[in-house]
Amino acid sequence: MTQVLLIAGHVPQPALLKASLEKFRAAGATVRLAGLFESADIDSDGLTLAGIRSLPEGAEAAHGEAFVRRISKGAAPRRVWRHVERDRWVRGHARKAQVLVALDAGAVYTVWRLSQRNRRADAVFGIAPALKAVADRQARPGHYALRDAFHTLPSAVIAARRTKRLARLGANGLYHRATSPTVMRNAVGAKVWRSAVSAPRLPDGVRARLAKRVSHSMAKGGRRAGSVIVLHSAAERMADRALQAELLVDAARRDIGRGHDDLKGRARAVKAALALADERYKKGDPKRAAELLSSALTLAFHRAIHFDGLSSPLMTDTAGYLAPFRDSTAFAALSAPRGRELPAATPPADRPMRLLVTTYSNANFLQPIMDRYAGHPGVEIRFLDLKEDDEIRPLARGGQRMMEHLLGGQRRFGTQVEHALRPHLDWADTVFVDWATNASAIFSLVDPGTTRMVVRLHSYEAFTFWPHLVDFTRVDDVVFVGDHLRDLTVDLLPPLSEPAAPELHVIANAMFLERFQLEKASPDARFTLGLVGVSAVAKDPRWALDVLRILRGHDERYRMVVVGDGLDRKASRAARDYDDLLQRDLDELTATGAVDLIGRTDDVPGALTKVGVILSSSVRESFHCGLVEGAASGALPVVRDWPFFADKANGARTLFPADWIVTTPEEAAERILALTGSEENWRTATASAAKHSLSTWDWSVVGLEFDRLLLSDEV
User: Which H/E stretch holds residue 615?
Assistant: First the structure.
């Protein structure tokens, strides 16, 4: 006989109950009933029940009236489970049952919980699935004997049917409790819900909501890979392209969030979002098109992909990586040239040239420029930090509103930007915008009139979406800090290669190098390696530690000083993973006194008096001021041929003298051993490097290049 336990959240309909019990009896099943009803509510005459249990009456008899009042608050799903989990009669028969049946939505959660304790039972919602489960068991007794012995999961189809009803009904917390992180931590629970998400015949809307909920709970429950798989599984079964794209984008983000990057999955998500963006743009829906473009761009330019790893797909195949965007009509509309009505004018001769220097938040590289022109008789200078301007700050935050405006929407936003920036543009003869990020993008939303626009791009921006929002037909000059960055940016931005492109300049960062020319603390400083700035994964300090290990294998006098803050572990999972490895290396080396972590200091010149070798271990750099400052201090420069640019026309090997460049830790150690073996060789090599640094990159030299850029009569 098949043992069946029925659970009810309210009084079953008498006629339906009687008819159902007749069918169970005909199928040879023994049936028991428990629920939130009073015994008097069930007319047991003529009912073929092996047992009946009133949950409130049982609770009162076992625990008292006060207990019943306490657990009888809330929705039916919660009340049913609170009674059942304390009812020995129900739990005892539930352990023996082969089919557990929820007669209504209020009982589904309880049946699911009971099925976790009795893995052999089929857990179903409704009479029809229950009768089918009984019939299947009797038709295939051998199969179910093996299943009961070895298979611990309820039927995937039955679980899916239950899930469909759960997703539709979601009765006041039932749905969320059944799909909670606690449930997902259990391997069985996670597998059941993965199967449910992929079940056939679920409506797309229901499947999408369920997939998101299950994915979220799996991630919270520690099943990060499973949280991605669930979203992909649901997307595969979607007919609705908008929902499919949404799930694919969510899956790619979760994948990156767990420190992994599925290139194909991410590319598929980007293409799906772009296809929908094109569709919405064509139908005159700039708001939705901008949302989709923003999703695609933030995913393609996610920091974990380009900043928190030792490689970037943007460098491997620039054209291929950007191809989906270049094929997109909506993206093309973003970068469509809008031009300017009038060319930039030559500043009047009867007054000083008015220079507006501006940025959004980051003015780290601007002080020497502002100091130079603050005292210049031919210049009147102002500084504007957009982040500190109460009117401009909310307009400059985020790119989605800018995108929507560029696609033909957000007209009020465009009016607000014009109103906020026009007074600054009307005052200035030249605007120098540092960083090609949101500051450059928002300024290019406005026709500058006759004001000359100059934008400086460092390195960070090239690996973000911001330069793609800048209208370079409204920019007169673009300044790069290195030839390698100019080449990369031209590859990224086709408008920079067109006839109407702005003038491109390469000017190094401003550095006062003479202040670093201090006497070394001792001749033994040549055995101390310096690493200045390790706050980004791209600095790859582990490469430098490999160099140190090789050197100490030859001579244990070699040690390293690390100047600057450590990695930002909150940036991404990829950054944390790298930092975990780095900390393990540092623990090993600091224990032997081989590494000294001095952290951030306001006296870098003083710290460098103890350093005899300065390293650049980075995979990419814009310029690496710390290296050049170290070389100017009299330390031996050793520069890794930055891998991001090693196979390009320009890179570290064209920026610095050839003898500074190495490709491997072994080559770096070889250069250091050869030139620090004697004090004489070390002093000769470092004097040459210091002379080159001062004559090439000191502000006394570079400042003249800025004069030619900003003060030349030729605009």
Answer: strand 613-616
Structure-block tokens of residue 405: 């405006």
> Starting at the edge strand that comes first in sequence, how are the strands of the sheet with 29-35 ordered?
51-54, 29-35, 2-8, 99-102, 122-125
Burial of 604 (0-12, 13-18, 19+ CB in 10 A): buried
DSSP sequence for 645-672: TTTSSSSHHHHS-GGGEESSHHHHHHHH
Instruction: Return d(Cα 54, Cα 531) in angstroms, integer.
Output: 75
- Mind listing the domains of the chain with CATH numbers? 1-165 (3.40.50), 353-506 (3.40.50.2000), 515-697 (3.40.50.2000)
Q: Is 262 helix (H, G, I), strand (E, B) or coil?
A: coil
Pairing outcome for strands 661-662 and 122-125: unpaired
Place 608 in a pLDDT band, splitting at 50, 70 and 90: very high
* Best CA proximity match to 544, nearest among 641, 668, 643: 668
- Please list the helix, strand and coil fractions of the chain in percent, rounded to the nearest 5, in that order: 55, 10, 30
Q: How many CA atoms lie within 13 A of 668 on its CB side?
A: 23
Mean pLDDT of 350-377: 95
Residue 45 has pLDDT above 90, yes or no: no
Instruction: Give the alpha-carbon dihedral of 208, 212, 215, 220, to 10 degrees.
Output: -170
Helix 241-257 / helix 224-236 crossing angle, nearest 10 deg = 160
Q: Extract the tokens encoding 366.
A: 């601007």
Which pLDDT band, with edges at 50, 70 and 90, does 149 fall under? low
DSSP string, 536-596: SGGG-HHHHHHHHHHHHHH-TT-EEEEES----TTS-HHHHHHHHHHHHHHHHHHTTT-EE
Buried b / exposed e along 529-550 (16+ C-beta atoms within 10 A)? bbbbbbebbbbbbbbbbbbbbb
What lies within 8 Å, CB to CB, of 261 at 6+ separation is 255, 304, 305
Dmax over CA atoms of the chain, in Å, equals 110
Specify whether the CB–CB gap between 300 and 313 falls below 8 A. no
DSSP state of 386: G
Mean pLDDT of 1-16: 90
